[in-house]
Amino acid sequence: MKLTLVKKSVEESNGLSLVDQVESQLVELLRQKKLRVGDSIPREVELAELLGVSRTVIREALLRLRVMGLISSRRKKGAVITRPDIFSIMHRSMNPHILDQDTLRELFELRLMLEIGMADFIYQRISAEDIIELRAIVAMEADTGGAHVFSIEQEIAFHSKLYEISGNDSLKKFQKMLLPLFDFVHHSGLLKIPAEARKFVSHKGLVDILENGSPELFRNAMRNHLENHFIRLF
């Protein structure tokens, strides 16, 4: 199937530059050709002729695909399809100081969804050794008398272990990006209500349920554990 890029003005292209359009066309072309990881893509001259643009534009668009991790250069094969590290790409833009408030808030909410939703995976994969390690983490936490006193160090240590137990590598990578954002949003004033000191299910309580409860009990307990964050959102 031959693709032809229709050259339009910036206004006619919804603000997209020529390189933006070619980048999108290249991704669509690779999809149509059903290329897989390791397959070579057409040469620059072929792509320029196919899309009706200069090789300079093609080269710049291909550079973007390389930065995204979609293609890479291989000896004797030229440019080939690669398996992109999605979270590495996302990590480059996950700086809380440059993200807008709506995005920060949504990422905050996304982390809460993940924490509550991973109960079944944890129960399928947790071991006695994991329980011992979680209890060791809890033993190092300060006694707050049952009040929700937020500590980013405690959150990272305990919740990182939960993500590790889930056994999902993509989830673990995503969590590493979310935790610094979570702390930033917590202290940034983006949320409506200041955190209140009230009773909640502690990390120790969560471990007790992991050892003797069920996925459903853990989901409910995690929701209660995060309650002060929810009341600050709504």
In short:
Strand 1 (71-74) and strand 2 form a beta hairpin. This protein has two domains: 18-84, Orthogonal Bundle (Arc Repressor Mutant, subunit A); 93-233, Four Helix Bundle (Hemerythrin (Met), subunit A) (Up-down Bundle), CATH 1.20.120. It is built from twelve helices and two strands.
Structure description:
This protein is mainly alpha-helical. The protein has two domains: 18-84, Arc Repressor Mutant, subunit A (Orthogonal Bundle), CATH 1.10.10.10; 93-233, Four Helix Bundle (Hemerythrin (Met), subunit A), CATH 1.20.120.530. It contains twelve helices and two strands. The protein has helices at 18-32, 44-51, 55-67, 86-91, 101-117, 119-125, 128-139, 152-166, 169-188, 203-212, 215-225, 227-233, and strands spanning 71-74, 78-81. The protein has a two-stranded antiparallel ribbon with strand order 1-2. Strand 1 and strand 2 form a beta hairpin. Mean pLDDT is 83; it is low at 1-12.
| Element-by-element helix/strand order | HHHEEHHHHHHHHH
Total number of beta strands: 2
Query: What value does the Rg take, in angstroms?
Result: 24 Å
CATH class term of the largest domain: Mainly Alpha
Shape, please? elongated
CATH topology of the largest domain: Four Helix Bundle (Hemerythrin (Met), subunit A)
SSE arrangement:
Elements: H1 18-32, H2 44-51, H3 55-67, E1 71-74, E2 78-81, H4 86-91, H5 101-117, H6 119-125, H7 128-139, H8 152-166, H9 169-188, H10 203-212, H11 215-225, H12 227-233
Antiparallel strand pairs: 1-2
